[in-house]
Amino acid sequence: MEYIYAGLLLFRAGKAIEEASVKKVLEAAGVKVDDGRVKALVAALDGVNIEQAIKEAAVVPMAAAPVAHAGHTEAKKEEKKEEKKSAEESVAGLGSLFG
């Protein structure tokens, strides 16, 4: 994640996103730099219109949470009642062992 932040920081500062620049930003933040990840980031961002990508990412609609159906909740209530009943039966069975 910090590699992406470094790239975005350089972009916002108007600097070129190059390996040396990304390394400097990460080192300044106290991150142990992995050269392979830096190279991968720079290669992945080559030719990408970052401004457009940010705009598109900001517009993505959030999916609404699914609504539980009434029948589904009733089934769960019945299931809980059955579990409770079987637990009570188990306790009653244990009581008969001790007289």
What tags apply to this protein structure?
99 residues; Arc Repressor Mutant, subunit A; mainly alpha; elongated; 71% helix
Write the layout of secondary structure elements.
Layout: H1 2-12, H2 19-28, H3 35-45, H4 50-59, H5 70-97
Word description of this protein:
This protein is an all-alpha fold and 99 residues long. It has 5 helices and no strands. Helix 1 (2-12) crosses helix 2 (19-28).
Sheet having the most strands: none
- Rg calculated over all Cα atoms: 29 Å
**Residue-averaged pLDDT:** 79
The parts where pLDDT drops under 50 for at least 5 residues are none
CATH architecture of the domain at 2-59: Orthogonal Bundle
Look up the CATH topology of the domain at 2-59.
Answer: Arc Repressor Mutant, subunit A
What is the overall number of helices? Answer: 5
Helix content: over 70%
3D shape: elongated
Query: Terminal Cα separation, in Å?
Result: 65 Å
Count the beta strands: 0
Q: Which band does the percent of strand residues land in?
A: under 5%
SSE-based structural type: mainly alpha
Order of helices and strands: HHHHH
Kindly provide the name of the CATH class of the domain at 2-59.
Answer: Mainly Alpha
Brief overview, please?
With 99 residues, this protein is mostly helical. It has helices at 2-12, 19-28, 35-45, 50-59, 70-97.
